[in-house]
Amino acid sequence: MALFNNLGKQRKDDRSSVVNSAKTLLANIRFMDVDNPVHTMAITSAVPNEGKTFVAANLASAIATSGKTCLLVDCDMRRRSMSRALGVHAQHGIYAVMAGECTVQQAAVATQTPNLYFLDSEPRIPNPSDLLNSNRFSKLVDLARNTYDYVLFDTPPVGTFVDAAVLGTKVDAVFMVVREGFTRKAEVAAAADQLKKSGCNLAGMIMNYCERTSSEYYYEYYYTHDDKSTSQAPAPKMPVPKQRPSRSSAAKASTPVPTAPPARRKAASTDATVRQAPAAPSSDDTGVYERLAEQAAARPRRAAATDADGNPGASPLPTTPYVPHSNYDEI
To answer: CA 210, 202, 33, 172 torsion: positive or negative?
Structure first.
């Protein structure tokens, strides 16, 4: 991703922070409205020197590096600075396309970033606000929308000229750049109120020149850490885990190994009365056991039962019916 507006002299961590911020801004714009995605947008500010051209150029670069085609249009016709920030120069501009001298594809020039194209404006155009409010400019916006995936318009500050309010009614969304610690709250509120009264879709504010938050520390730790200094330092040694003792070593240990598990303790009884063990059968019960044994011996086996012709048949039922005993404890 190319960084514009003369960032080559900045530190490496600053460049990485700008790239990350531009990609985060693009992700927020894409997920802003999934049903009605934003494809054409205008970038403006409340007062000059808030960095709207810088934000527009790097946002367009983030769109191009994501694989989408993007057309960046310089509509700040009174102070043209986008061409210098991108380092490109075009032979035709907005007025030539509106006059029918060339198409949008012929007037747009490719930048150093793939998928990023730039459409400049001619110098010394009289009455830029009237030009932006014309029907021919509306047709230019529709042609650019159908040709490229995203179209970005860099507009003048709202507090200085009315161009941003006029163009904002022809695009999907308007974003206002606010420089932290630079612009007064009353100026930002007045600019936002003017955009809303004109019928623009003021989608949000883009903070610029902000102090880094705590999350930037982790970003620098992963992406801007000095690998050269860390490569010279010896790598930390991981502790070697102790090996598990074998069975032979366990047998030689001084602690004796129990030969059998310890006997389980008897659970405490919750009953108030303790049951006595059943007594041995008395002599009176001996006759009962003898009668049961004789009945079992006299009962014929199922396999040996036959009918009158000598063929196997159903097992006969016992001749002596079973009489349940009234006292089971005696059996």
So the answer is: negative
